[in-house]
Amino acid sequence: SEGLLVTQQVVKVIRPLDHAYVFDSTPYIKDLFTCTIKRLKAADIDQEVKERAISCMGQIICSLGDNLGSDLPSTLQIFLERLKNEITRLTTVKALTLIAGSPLKIDLRPILGEAVPILASFLRKNQRALKLGTLSALDILIQNYSDCLTASMIDAVLDELPPLISESDMHVSQMAISFLTTLATVYPSSLSKIGGSILTELIGLVRSPLLQGGALSAMLEFFQALVITGTANLGYMDLLRMLTGPVYAQTTSLAHKQSYYSIAKCVAALTRACPKEGPAVVGQFIQDVKNSRSTDSIRLLALLSLGEVGHHIDLSGQIELKAVILDAFSSSSEEVKSAASYALGSISVGNLPEYLPFVLQEITSQPKRQYLLLHSLKEIIGSAS
């Protein structure tokens, strides 16, 4: 076991893949391969030795695979067998992830047809580490071997994704969303299949108060990648309606303020990806804030969306914007007032020369609104730093 671990490290040293090297590893490859393949093929050895042999051979193929010649396909077939074994499958998934990420572009075509459906089936297993490892493996396979994957292989994976997108495990959700982002970038034609249950789960997760940090960032990247694919029924306005529709229709009560922030960030992510849509949508949000018939929920979402969009896109061309936000400071709803304060600070970040003097002037001249204006200033300082 320890010998295999040392061998694995030796392989990394004699053929580093991340920088130039002068050492000739060729004379040692045959011996390294022969001693490791013997352990990899052995069935009657200790479990730890089995796993170390898989990891070591994974490193050998990753670092020296271009020198293995005819031994490579037969060795990959052994990996396929280990993938089918419940005891060795997790270690094999990690080894395949390493191989798939190799800059040597190892030829995995002999096993992909059988391996990808097996990997897809792992996503429904009740083993968290296996799900995470499998999502990593599938992500790197999509990135580096998209030309070797068929539509049916990808469909098999997509069928298993909906249960993984849930607030019950945000890290698994984040990995699943990142996989979808890779898919949108590399294999956009496959996204026509996500319009049903996958998108339903994604929109549901956006409304969860638990969507924060890395999972929220992954969601924003996904929406940006999705909207620029031009997939039918998943364009800018389609996605905008899915995200904001329930608030406007009042069919869903969003109990947590965090849900509004998440929706607003997704709206801004879409708008950054489709800047031509920005002026019309910003104009609509301004009207929503002004409209006396708008509910507090609509005003809250509109203000937060204006803030998130304005953080990244200069909105100084919107003549009414300053007055509309200042009027919202007089709302009877504390949440609307707080959202207006946040929006003013966030919009200011998009054009500091225009908005910072305005905020400072208002702090000086409007003593009754100083508390809210100081929160706007705090948002500006926090973002600028």
From TrEMBL:
Say which domain of life the source belongs to. Answer: Eukaryota
Give the keywords, sorted. Answer: Repeat, Ubl conjugation pathway
Query: InterPro entries, alphabetically?
Result: ARM-like, ARM-type_fold, CAND1/CAND2
Q: Protein name, please?
A: Cullin-associated and neddylation-dissociated 1
Q: Give the originating organism.
A: Dicamptodon aterrimus
GO biological process, any: SCF complex assembly
